[in-house]
Amino acid sequence: MRLVRPKKFLGQHFLTDLRTAEAIADTVDSHPELPILEVGPGMGVMTQFLLKKQRPLKVVELDFESVAYLRKEFPELEPNLIEDDFLKMHLEHTFNGKPFLLTGNYPYNISSQIFFKMLEYRDLIPCCTGMIQKEVAERLAAAPGCKAYGILTVLVQLYYHVEYLFTVEPGVFNPPPKVRSAVVRLVRNDVQKPDCDEQLLTRVVKTTFNQRRKMMRGSIRPLLAELDTKWEPLQKGHADFLATPLMTKRPEQLSVQEFIELTNRVSELYQH
């Protein structure tokens, strides 16, 4: 059967180097008790090594051409080959509500969305591994004060420990991407629920990073203005709150714990 043509609109860059594919597949060995869901198997270059591990394995692929190829080349996958859009799937049905490990050579045009999907189902995904753009991997693993530190960093590190495992060069792909790639492993931490209003935390993080070059006292004002119309502020203008030392920092300087503390302080500004 002829090879699948990579499709730019799907963000496809097919891995061609078997040693790299095996190394990525081996990242799942940290959690041998978990069944595996592979996202975007393409022509199965990584799938072949996952199959050798003799663990429950399902793969989800959106590209009809890749699905036809997988059916032909890996007939043993047939009952567990899901032709669907991963971002639209109800993951609680994947392994009958049981936890699983998420992995893949993720399509680069949706890599960030995949991690937000993982967060949505964090109670079902104790571990996530895979290959993404190096830039996104650096964002996931960034420490406060780094240029790469941002919205994705804070929201992922709230629930997962992030390991940057190794870098992958463009030459092992067809077509070669314009950027370097990296392999990561994310392992669930002990946080079940943050010690604050979770929805408000997300809004604080997103609002402040939308103006990341400003100090916090400037970047948080749009959120305070919005909340002032919904809830009753205890102090008009929030002068005392905006004068606290934390407000002189920029968003990328705040740790995850400081964002939690900030969210609680924002909540305390209102009667609601």
Helix-strand makeup class: alpha/beta
Q: What global shape is seen?
A: elongated
Query: What is the fourth-level CATH superfamily of the largest domain?
Result: Vaccinia Virus protein VP39
Order of SSEs, N→C? EHEHEHEEHEHHEEEHHHEHHE
What would CATH call the class of the largest domain?
Answer: Alpha Beta
Summed up, the domain count is 2
Radius of gyration over all CA atoms, rounded: 21 Å
CATH topology of the largest domain: Rossmann fold
Number of helices: 11
Helix content: 25-40%
Q: How would a crystallographer describe the biggest sheet?
A: 7 strands, mixed
CATH architecture of the largest domain: 3-Layer(aba) Sandwich
Residue runs with pLDDT of under 50 for 5 or more positions? none
Strand share of the residues? 15-25%
Tally the beta strands: 11
**Main sheet: strand order:** 4-3-2-5-6-9-7
Between the first and last Cα atoms, what is the distance in angstroms?
Answer: 63 Å
Average per-residue pLDDT, rounded, comes to: 93
Plain-language structure description:
This protein is of the alpha/beta class and about 270 residues long. It has 2 domains: about 10-190, Vaccinia Virus protein VP39 (Rossmann fold), CATH 3.40.50; about 200-270, Helicase, Ruva Protein, domain 3. It has helices at about 20-25, 45-50, 65-75, 110-120, 135-140, 150-155, 200-210, 215-220, 220-230, 240, 255-265, and strands at about 15, 35-40, 55-60, 80-85, 100-105, 125-135, 160-170, 175, 180-190, 230-235, 270. The strands form 3 sheets. Strands 4-3-2-5-6-9-7 form a 7-stranded mixed sheet. It is elongated.
